[in-house]
Amino acid sequence: MSATDINPHILVFPYPAQGHMLPLLDLTDHLALQGLTITILITPKNLPYLSSLLSAYPSSITPLILPFPSHPSIPPGIENVKDLGHSGNLLIMTSLSKLYDPLLHWFNSHPTPPVAIISDFFLGWTQHLAHQVKIPRLTFFPSGAFLASIDDYLWNDVDKFKPLDEVDLSSLPGSHVFKVDHLPSLFRLYQKSDPDWELVKDVKLANSRSWGCVFNSFEALEGEYMDYLKKKLGHDRIFGVGPLNLAGPGSSGRGYLGSGSNPNDRVLTWLDGCQEGSVVYVCFGSQKMLKREQMEALAVGLEKCGTRFIWVVKTGTTREQEDGFGVVPDGFEERVAGRGVVITEWAPQVMILSHKAVGGFLSHCGWNSVLEGIVGGVMILAWPMEADQFVNARLLVEDMGVGVKVCEGADSVPNSDELGRIIGVSMREGAGVKERAKVLKEKALQAVTNGGSSVNNLVRLVGELRKLIS
Prior knowledge:
This protein has helices at 3-6, 18-33, 51-56, 89-96, 100-109, 126-132, 145-155, 158-161, 185-189, 195-208, 219-233, 265-272, 292-305, 318-322, 332-335, 349-353, 367-376, 389-400, 416-429, 431-447, 453-467, and strands at 9-13, 37-42, 61-65, 116-120, 137-141, 166-169, 176-179, 212-215, 238-240, 279-283, 308-312, 340-343, 358-363, 379-382, 403-405. It is of the alpha/beta class.
């Protein structure tokens, strides 16, 4: 018997954005370790992300390379959100939906087609494809169950909530009230009757109808929201299997596609000379570039905080830099020499956050960064900007007590004095927040050890997939 006769064949379809793709590939690694046969749908420019998996599992993981569908607003050769910025999500989502027919043809012509699809929550149209080929689809959420609960609540009654200034979520755990400006970006930007936005609405509603949901989260962090979804969706195929970044392929170098050794070894050496918990790490993810006024305010705030720091700066094109985006103010690095380090290239974020010298993380609160901060056991200094980040910040600051809000909004320019004060006070006096962060780290580690909730959920997920061929 061949491997495909005894092991389920699964199609994995990641969404081409750093924060979506990396955790789903980490999950794929776990599934391959359990003996599953996997096909990963990828477009040509994103194929390098699969290199470590294809090397590790040459006989059980196969890429399905389909051309990226053209779109009048996407320049040729661009196939990843990182090359467009966050606003490119609508374009990428719309383009990828055109893979429906090529993918259907592949299914119908395959001698042993997959028995299930695991696809990103931005690819909800695969629910219709799965229904057409009569197999189950599982939604992979690279973000949290709190966000999924809010999404389900909002999109099922979008016309009611859209005109409001704030939304009362009293039927959800935590009974939060959100300003509309702080709700997920896709909901805020939705335009009724626009074909592209109607696709987004359909994608979101399809996720709630999927056969199962897999979350890059864990029960000690979001158990009450996973329980809520089990009741709301009417089944228990809700699997919290995170933090996936703890045990994925080459997690210390996640997202680095360069050649040779990882850069910034000097940063780790510098950290070795710092006192425990004394350094704040500043990074706003792979997509967000700060404008000139924000760069200047943040630089002054870091100067005034009196705390050691590492600042990762996303730099842009020559034109963007001419407009001040991602430009470090003149003389700043000289003024903070010895106390601060500025990085303008890829940074080994997992390793930095896990270093004992780092005690705080000034973050936009993207979900991957949130989990990496939790695994590092550091306090989160929250500056949510867009997408799911306000939801994540609320979870960290109010529900879990492991974060402090320092600013909010994609275009906000913080008061430098106040920013410096909050960073300094939080790092020096935030003992309670830091302690809760360390406790949450231990719970995250427990979740992914034998007998832990995430390991048990992964075993349960594989068991459910195996039932499909029994």
